[in-house]
Amino acid sequence: MSETVITKEQKKTLWFVISASSVGTLIEWYDFYIFGSLATILSEQFFPKSNPTAAFLSTLATFAAGFIVRPFGAIVFGRLGDIVGRKYTFLVTLILMGGSTFAIGLVPGYESIGIFAPILVLVLRLLQGLALGGEYGGAATYVAEHAPASKRGFFTSFIQTTATLGLFVSIGVILAVRESMDIVEFNDWGWRIPFILSAILVGVSVFIRLRMNESPLFAKIKAEGKISKNPIKESFGNKENLKLVLIALFGAAAGQGVVWYTGQFYAMTFIEKTCNVEFVQTRNIIAIALLIGTPLFIYFGWLSDKIGRKIIMMIGMILAVLLYRPVYRQMYLLTDIQYKTEIPSEKNITKTIRVTDAGDSVTVKKTIHVYDDGSNQILTNTAIKRKAGEKTVEDKKEVTLSGEPYYALIGLVLVQLVLVTMVYGPIAAFLVELFPTRIRYTSMSLPYHIGNGIFGGLTPFIATILFENSKTASTPAGDPLAGLWYPIIVAAITFVVGMIFLSNKPKADVDE
């Protein structure tokens, strides 16, 4: 379907293709990102509680492991997609992802099965990464091969919204479950519900995808006997195509990956762990910014059809390099109580005691400090006396914002999301147009998943390590901006490579 003008029937088919592909991909992203959205709680469930920092870093490393195997999933399922077909391949990835996510919700905690808990979670996380490695390339390719060449940026941008919407849905489900029960119950077992719900979501998506037909371009080359017998060899053994893979990786996907994960996941980690903003409010801030910013994926995808993919992506890269440090500095200052004036008369101390269904006695003491800008700092001391006689004590220091600081923080996250939409909105069409149909699934999936899975997916982990390593005896709080050097450097390198080697004009489809 290369013509710009399409019939009413073709348009109807195209929107069904986009809807069916997007729903399935959104669910896969939901499954994949729900782990990161619950990282702070999972660190307490699957790792020893004796060292909270080590447990959190171990959780981030497990989260990152799913990203590291995504390129392998791209190779395995990319080959399958170029030989068997787009439709059936990402049907398999959907089932694999859903099953792994459901299983994570059933894994017993560290206190029950010890070291086997993190091992099982790691194995399931690796299966999630393999599944996602095959999903995105198939969905983007499938939609692009149904769309008119002159409108690929616009139509593939709907697939681009699914990653952010998947994160948004994961946060929404977590908050809904969290608000429906006591915090102790949520931390004990309620966190499992979002994982288990995945089974229902995947079942709906499988039903929808079974009604889909094969991509017309793939069906055409299959009928003509032009399917690649060895897409991996053609993609990476051919010198010219390998050069395109490397340019796609270092000139676009690597920088796009770090910008995406900095603007959403590291922003969430930074607000919650570095700025100590309360759990629910952190996710509300991210969710509101996501809701406002998501339509821009479609806008920049549409704009890339008019002025080219390269120029939009490169502007997003260089703006990230220039803006990250001032944006994050302001985020930190908005939440730092050193720069706020306390109102002593508003100080409030409460103490509650209750008995859970399991017979445990829970005593919660809250000390609330109120500041002149409407912010609160809540010091929470939770003592749990187990029915069996064991007693645990947990201390938390959290900040809640209101008024101007709260909305300003949403605005600063939204600035980052604008950059995310600039680099991510056009990239599916860009990658699809770079490679011929016969090896497209394999060729585009690998640079995308190395860029996003390794360069991007490691962003929260590496940035957190850089921040922790900045803590010294003289500066025990560390440098809150230290973690930003990683995404800034990667985005800067990608900008330089992209400006030199990328073309702003789409490449003609070789086999169409």
Question: Can you describe this structure?
Answer:
Residues 17-509 form the Major facilitator superfamily (MFS) profile domain. Residues 508-512 have low confidence and may be disordered. By secondary structure, the protein is an alpha+beta fold. The chain has a four-stranded antiparallel sheet, with no helix packed on it. The protein has helices at 8-37, 39-46, 52-68, 70-83, 86-104, 110-113, 116-144, 152-179, 183-190, 192-196, 198-209, 216-223, 231-236, 239-274, 279-293, 295-307, 309-335, 403-424, 427-434, 440-456, 459-469, 485-501; strands at residues 348-355, 361-370, 376-385, 391-400. Helix 4 (70-83) runs antiparallel to helix 5 (86-104), helix 8 packs across helix 19 (427-434) and helix 14 packs parallel to helix 17. It contains 22 helices and four strands. The protein has two domains: 8-338 and 403-501, MFS general substrate transporter like domains (Growth Hormone, Chain: A, Up-down Bundle); 344-400, N-terminal domain of TfIIb (Single Sheet).
